[in-house]
Amino acid sequence: MKNVAVIGAGTMGNGIAHVFAQFNHTVHLIDVSQVALDKALVTIGKNLDRQVAKEAITEAEKAATLNNLKTFTSISEGVKGVELVVEAATENIDLKLKIFKELDEVTAPEVILATNTSSISITKIASVTNRADKVIGMHFMNPVPVMKLVEIIRGYSTSDEVTNLIMKTSRQLKKVPVEVNDYPGFVANRILMPMINEAIYTLFEGVAGVEEIDTVMKLGMAHPMGPLQLADFIGLDVCLAILEVLHNGFGNPKYAPCPLLVNMVNAGKKGVKTGEGFYSWTHGTKELIVAPNFKK
Ligand code: NAD
User: How far apart are CA 6 and CA 129, in angstroms?
Assistant: First the structure.
């Protein structure tokens, strides 16, 4: 699979495009927003510079990677001639169903359609296509150029052949693929999100402050960053959306999102992307916010 289209040029899409382009794929990066596409190319350039500075790649490899990338604002134009599509648009089920319906119409029947969704059912997404055997989850982790794991999610009808091909493709990107089945949150977010939600409840109930909770998990459990900082990185809106999928999918109250998380998302405090979450990120570095409801 030489030619790949990536749909969505946000946090994940630019990283996915970067990695495919770095490993010699021609990448068509597609977004409805030209601003997002321009920003993605700047981000990829900066991340490649960092790799050059660390001597992970050469200047020539950086140039070849950038040369492998083309941008498009139309899906039907961008998917021409590709063998694989990786969708990484906004986490919204109606949007994803609309995109996959269109992809099914505008790509040849043998094209594999993958989604980077964090939690939406692969089987549901596949149901709007006429090729459920060729629809699969390819869940990269953030930041994509750095993180090794790709959670490969088999929908109810995904074929062995397609699963094996996507596992092999992931290994060619120097990633470690792990195959899982299609149930709410898959494996990564089914385990991660209840932990983040519990950290938010611990704060909400006044058991400890933001830094105390993060320090306990960093130093006590050897996590590279605390759960509240991680939530700021992921995006509090994304965390809320995933918890709602878990809550609705299992019907179990243990997944109910903490009211503080809901309030923060409604207040527009979505973490790094909006400059404020559990920490302030306005100066590019993390500063503790001491809001009244965060006090011990
Ligand atoms: P994001 O908001 O940063 O980017 C989404 C992009 O999709 C935007 O640039 C938007 O313009 C574009 N878009 C929206 N509608 C579109 C359409 N119809 N056609 C083309 N582009 C469209 O979101 P993100 O954080 O990159 O998340 C993307 C996907 O990756 C989601 O499914 C999310 O659940 C998943 N994911 C996110 C993370 C994370 O840490 N953020 C990790 C793993 C997976």
Answer: 18
Closest residue CA from atom 20 of ligand 1: 31
Domain ranges of the chain: 3-181, 189-294
CATH of 189-294, one of 3.40.367.20, 1.10.3210.10, 2.30.40.10, 1.10.1040.10: 1.10.1040.10
The number of helices, as runs of H, and strands, as runs of E, in the chain is: 12, 10
Q: Could you tell me whether strands 149-154 and 176-181 are parallel, antiparallel, or unpaired per DSSP bridges?
A: parallel
Q: Could you tell me if the CB of 120 is within 6 A of ligand 1?
A: no
Look up the pTM and report it.
Answer: 0.91
The residues annotated with a catalytic role in the active site are: 118, 139, 151, 189
pLDDT tops 60 at residue 170: yes
Cβ–ligand 1 distance for 239 under 6 Å, the answer no
Q: Distance, CA 290 to ligand 1 centroid (Å)?
A: 30
Atom of ligand 1 nearest to the CA of 241: 34
State the pLDDT at residue 293.
55
- Please, are residues 144 and 15 in contact by the beta-carbon 8 Å criterion? yes
Regarding the domain delimited by 3-181, which CATH topology (the fold level of the hierarchy) does it fall under? Rossmann fold (3.40.50)
Per-residue pLDDT tens over the stretch 192-201: 999 999 999 9
N-terminal to C-terminal alpha carbon distance within the chain: 54
Of ligand 1's atoms, which has the minimum distance to the CA of residue 9?
9
CB-based contact 137:123 (threshold 8 Å): no
pLDDT digits (tens, 9 = 90+) for 110-130: 999 999 999 899 999 999 999
Assess whether the C-beta atom of 7 lies below 6 angstroms from ligand 1: yes
Q: What ligand 1 atom has the least distance to the C-alpha of 33? A: 11
Rounded percentage of the chain residues whose pLDDT exceeds 90: 92
